[in-house]
Fold these 2 entries.
Entry 1:
Amino acid sequence: MFIEIFFLIHLALIPTFIKEFNLNLFQASLIATVPSLAVLLSYIPVGILVDKVGAKPMLLTSMIIEGLAALLISQIRDYLFLVLAVSLIKISSPIYHTSGLSAVSRMSDLKSTGKMMGWHNALGSLGATIGLLSLSVLGGNQGWRFVYLFWSVPVLAWCIPILKSEVKHYEENPGGTEVKGVMLTDFKTILNFRFSLLMSIIAFRDFGTSAISTFITTYMVEARGLSQEVASMIFGLGPLIGILSSLICGHLSSRFGNAKTLLWMVVGSLLSLIPLSLANSLNLLMMAYTIYSFFNNGAWSPIGALVASLTPSSMRGVGYSIYFFTEGMVTTAQPTTTAIIIEYTDLNVIFPIGISLLSVCAAVLGCCHYGFPPSRMKNRKFFL
């Protein structure tokens, strides 16, 4: 929950950064691109460290970095240093997720992984919701810097419960000996066809959804004429509804399968973008964005469970780091690429971009799971 407090705040603040620092859209996109690049470069080393030193030291490190970076951001007045500080706070995310998700997956069997990922993601969505709500409430009265200062205190204080917690280094085998740490030469055991296929599907999905999440508040402010506070409140509906969708989709994953649930979420996301792009009133905009957020956030539970099912337990940290590395490549390239397209068109272009890429994702995922053509489905071996 705490690691996701700042997850969406810097994106929601892009319109504010544009005004306060007198930026064009390309410059403003750097607040999303540069931190994503820093995160991208950290995934693989962090994943190796998790499997070598264990989850607990890495969990503690993530909270310390996040808390100190938030404290630093609250005092910054230069945009360049702001970008660097946000990059630092974003690095805490891969440190947590590779260690946290590997620990969660080791606490469950394959049948219950979906449900546990659902609870895990629900608390993450709760954190992101609290962060955006505090931006609207505290930021409106005290300024956006106070939000970072306020949350740095409980984040750093949470290091104490982590120190007292018990998180096993590696799960033990029946003989009681520990599983050996990962070697660089063992990457081939993870990068098989099925896992690579899943990463390709995730890349298409993330590029489409990131185009929406990065510029949706800017779209609401500039194209729909809403205030920054109202746009942030609507944006906050995303992680709020994500609490419910994570729990529901975690249950669906355990009951109907991870790949099938992911397909439903992708199709639901692309279909809900159509009314979102056409909404011309505040109520319709809120309703459409709520529906889109349900399907978009619901995808994380089956994705997390699929990654766990396709990686050996002793290399779970590396498996998740490769997954997040794939996401990182997309989120690094997407903001600048989309910003350039917007400069030559307008902000409405984010919707055809999202719909097109999600359609490709759904098509590939459907073919991989059901086989192609569908009439021969019974004779096909499911890839996912």
Entry 2:
Amino acid sequence: MDRRAPAYAQVAESLREMALATRLDIDDPLPPEPKLAELFNVSRGTLRRATEELVREGLLVSTSGRGTFVRKHTQIRLLIADALRRVAVPDSRWGLDVTSFVPDFAGTAECHGRVAAMDHYATAQTLFITPDNSLQGLIVRALADGKRVLVPTYAMRRGIVLLDPAAVPAEHREFAATLDGLERFGTTLDLPALRTGPKVDLLVTGAMALTLSGVHVGSGDAYLDLEWGILSQLGLVDDSTPIVGIVHPCQVVEEELPPKPLDITVDVIITTLATITPERRYARPHGISWGALDAARMDSIAYLRELHPVYSEWNDNA
């Protein structure tokens, strides 16, 4: 702890440590404000400012009449990030800031091989693969196996790209599998082209974490939830579409974490050590949850603006 930092910042650091040390399977509130102020030997005003800081960061949520709770998804992200940095391959842009990307790690080629051995992969003509560093090798393999691959551009700002194996020379597959290269060799699909394009036979995703029950925990930007929402709105995926998650063993969370309303669950978890098939316990969401979107997300993704029934009115009222 930096003793030169303001008192509220020191308390926020201690409170953060307390929150991260809270058991994931416990959903009780933190001790009440008077007890915390006494524990940290600070005024309630200082404690309140520290708490507000962690609420803004998303680690805590304060509910009137109930108390202050730890946001479990954020807790998991922060806990996994520390472990993931020790095994991650640095990104060219983000380094080891694993809160900004899903990294590659040793052994992903074996994971990709186990995906390729699945019956769902053998029969699939079109795969949707998220643009995670850990999945670039799978895109290369799918193209080599003659599969069409749908890959979102960064933050979906330029939509989704279709990589056709016939249009990607073998010597350029590795570059085509990257965010920098996929638009050089693929076709960026506008909404009509996406709507009439191929249905997804298999979806493969990375994650910040996956629970043993298959709940997907992303980086906090909810891009998989949004991608699924758009694809399901267009009828390109449904509850029967198989979803595979590839993660490092340190990203698998044993504790139960009920999904949030828009969370996606996977059917198969593949790590370098095991293949896990969770029991399907939660229905997947269908369509786009317009109430969960803000103006910035709507403005940055053309699909959303075109799919919204009354975007101009929504934009005026946003």
